[in-house]
Design a protein that fits this description.
118 residues; seven-stranded mixed β-sheet
């Protein structure tokens, strides 16, 4: 059974930093891991993804401030977020995309709240 457990969210002042972690278990292989976020009243949106071959993809406006990385030994993906702004306030969801016999399947964590406020 695939499980994704996120951690690292919280309250931070504008300009501050946070590092989110997502530990995956129950997987044997994956295509990509990543982060999405959803602010109140808005649709879930891409933050960043990283493939098994280390190809990264960022939402264009976030690339300058956010960095995605992973640790294969720990089956963990990280999101380093710097220079945080109030607009970054959202629930951040970990995503895992795995290959199946019929294509790709997506798994989601429960989300971790990030609040940027003074």
């Amino acid at each position: 059974q695939v499980q994704l457990v996120e951690s690292g969210g919280g309250l931070v002042q504008p300009g501050g930093s946070l590092r989110l972690s997502c530990a995956a278990s129950g997987i044997f292989s994956f295509y990509a891991m990543g982060w999405f976020r959803q602010a109140p009243g808005k649709q879930r949106e891409l933050v960043a993804t990283i493939t098994r071959t280390d190809t990264t993809n960022y939402a264009g406006s976030l690339k300058a401030r956010f960095t995605i990385s992973r640790d294969d030994a720990k089956n963990t993906v990280y999101l380093q977020m710097n220079s945080l702004k109030p607009d970054d306030t959202a629930v951040y969801y970990c995503n895992l995309r795995v290959p199946t016999t019929s294509g790709m399947s997506d798994y989601w964590g429960r989300g971790t709240q990030v609040t940027v406020s003074s």
